UniProtKB/TrEMBL annotation:
It comes from Megasphaera massiliensis. Belongs to the EamA transporter family. The lineage of its organism: Bacteria, Bacillati, Bacillota, Negativicutes, Veillonellales. This is DMT family transporter. It is a multi-pass membrane protein. The keyword Transmembrane applies. PANTHER family: EAMA DOMAIN-CONTAINING PROTEIN, INNER MEMBRANE TRANSPORTER.
Amino acid sequence: MKDAYLKFMLATVIYGTNGIVASHIPLSSYEIVLTRTVLGSLFLLVLTGFRHEWKTLYQMPPREWLLLVLAGVFLGGNWIFLYEAYQQIGVSLATLLCYIGPILIMILSRFVFKEPFTVPKVTAMVLVTLGIIAINGADFQAHGLSWGVACGFLGAVCFALLIVVMKKAKPLTGFFAPACQLIIASILVGAVTYNLPTPDVNLTIQDMSYMALLGFINTGLGYALYFTGVQRLSAQSVSICGYFEPFTALLLSALILGEVLTPMQWVGAVLILGGVALSELWHPRKKS
């Protein structure tokens, strides 16, 4: 279990750098998503070959294949809607809407996985939700109901369904399963991107190095760690600990990009960190 927590938290830290890395790539949001899914899947396929995991291909029952396909579709849908929301309403509000997903996961976990609502989990979810609102909520009043807002909410729904499907799948080790999901996601994103106008861009060596970093490490390695951690943690722990990603993004933006945080954003960061710690460290004893 400690290994699962370590992998999941490391994945959220890696994901927290996505915005910083992607900001150095002069492509449209859809092209960036397509690049990261293709490179990430190729990276994991190579690792699958080195580890001789191809035999998994013949051992998986049809049900597991169906769950892998659904996970890939929801993964691609989450990224498509999220990056469309980035373009329509900005990163801040899109991030706020996307993190409705963990709230949906906690609600679904009660009915799908029979995980009871406990005082630590519910309290932690309230704290991290207030934290994400404190960080990103300033832009919410500037937008009414729009296509961008709808995309942010649909991205959250896809994220919640992705976690549910991953939890339903049989626990797997290695890189084969996440590689399959990224391949399916890349096909979906590629079909959407193919029908969109894409201006010509002259990429430099530096641009391609950032693309490689985003694809191989942030997507390939990061999703493999994320996939392994999600399968072994409770759905409620996944939903709450996942908020460590925006906390990491906020902190790195201040340290690396020199962005100045407002007092309200600092309050939000403290609430998120406190909520995550409360969720995983507070274990009230049951009365005999």
